[in-house]
Amino acid sequence: MNLTARLADYAWLVRAQLRLRTPDWSAGTGAPVLLVPGIWETWHVMRGLGDALHRAGHPVHGLDLGTNSADLASSAERLCARLDGLDLRHAVVVAHSKGGLVAKLALGRTDRLDGVVALATPFAGSRYATWFPARPVRRLSPRDPEIRALAADASRHARIVAFRPRYDPHVPRAATGAAALTGAVEIEVDLEGHFRLLGDPGVQAAVVRAVEGFGAGR
Length: 218
Prior knowledge:
17% strand
């Protein structure tokens, strides 16, 4: 991935993080959707996905995890509590990056979720996180016990659809490949970058189809 593309990826993220207005997406007759962001993100970076899902008839809600820097177990508890608080049933999580790990863990802790659609999620951890100065990022290393245990558990993979870009500067291919997600549906997107696929209209349309596929049987 060249420097220009990498800078464009980060520029997209900065612009997306500034969209702080909270829309009302609560109406809709489709499967309810919960948006779960990645580390150091708010769910506002997924605004375009929320708009697309709501236009398709889905009630959409965001999950506030602050900076999403807590451990996976604590965040999964908050996800389940949010589902309980909204009384959502047969819901689907649409998650970015670390949010997909939180959602996978939550799949085994609640009966309110039908599935997870994850984008650019390091399901086997990211080797780039191993020596990162900040502890919250190092928790995403393949060496982390929580990551290793979650990666080894394939019991929930049949309820996961995972999108990944052609090249991701934060998540090596091995972290999202077949070894990490045996039994899941994996889709490679012809884009470069960890963030920009969230704003791509083609990806958004595919995510809508994936969400609707849980209700129809894939």
